[in-house]
Amino acid sequence: MPVIIRKEGRKEGPLGVMYVEVNGANFLNTGCYTTTVGENLFDIGIIFAANINYDVPAQRAVLHLNQNVTTVLQNANVYVKPLQDKGIKVLLSILGNHQGAGVCNFPDETAARDFATQLNQAVRLFDLDGIDFDDEYADYGNNGTGQPNAFSFIYLLRELRTLMPDKIISFYYYGPATSRLSYQGLIAGDYLDYSWNSIYGTYSVPNVPGLTQRAQLGPAAVNVRATSGGTAQNLATQTVNDGYGIYLYYDLPNTDINTYLSGISERLHGVGSTLTGGCLRPWPPTGKTEKVCACAGKEKPADEK
């Protein structure tokens, strides 16, 4: 096990990034785990997931939020802000929805800008901290859409970074986008903050042009419901020994997994983890522990961020 010398006033070791499947898990549970010295175990929580749908008559990629994602976002004061108040950054994951639209087949810069504008509007409306891209389930070619091209993802990243200079943009390293990270002198690393491995139970450094700092990369990825504790701990040790800055977790449940997480935390941060008593909540909301507001349709003034 690596020896981690803790320094007062800052968390030691890699950032913890947790994807939460909000179709079955309560996003608030991201904030229930801390290290034994009171730091957030998870530094970034990702709402999994919003989709890229395809409006066939308009031939346009559109942002789609299913019922559970909508519940979380339209009640951001209940499910998002309490985590942000603890210092946890909240991102929205974006992935395909079998309709032919994805991050890699925008036909031109205008189409990429249009979708980037939709993402920026969602981030600003719901006070999120950024966007995470996952190039899965697009089923490129469906509904008469094009196949992945060389420029689409780069144009999308560039346009979104222009709109969101103050927000996080990350890339779940998977799919056709992994081989389309540069175009005519433009490189993905100029627009991305982070990228992490997507294959759970493995260790692989994402190859993203321009992301040269190890602090921006996460080679270890675990599914907390499927990756063995021993494998997860070994990946944590390797991450620290190699000096990388991110450790990726996926599929946080509504049940107590502190024993599993504590073994990882000991290797990442030099201390174990703890679960705040009475913190875990079920999903969908019961009405007893959470109040859900009816805030559909509310929009902020254009100049408010």
TrEMBL record:
GO molecular function per UniProt: chitinase activity
Gene Ontology BP annotations: carbohydrate metabolic process; chitin catabolic process
Pfam families in alphabetical order: Glyco_hydro_18
Limits of the GH18 domain: 13-305
Domain of life from the UniProt record: Eukaryota
Keywords for the protein's UniProt record, in alphabetical order: Glycosidase, Hydrolase
Signal peptide: none
PROSITE patterns reported in the protein's UniProt record: GH18_1, GH18_2
Listed NCBIfam families: Endoglyc_H
Family the entry assigns: Belongs to the glycosyl hydrolase 18 family.
Name of the protein: Endo-beta-N-acetylglucosaminidase H
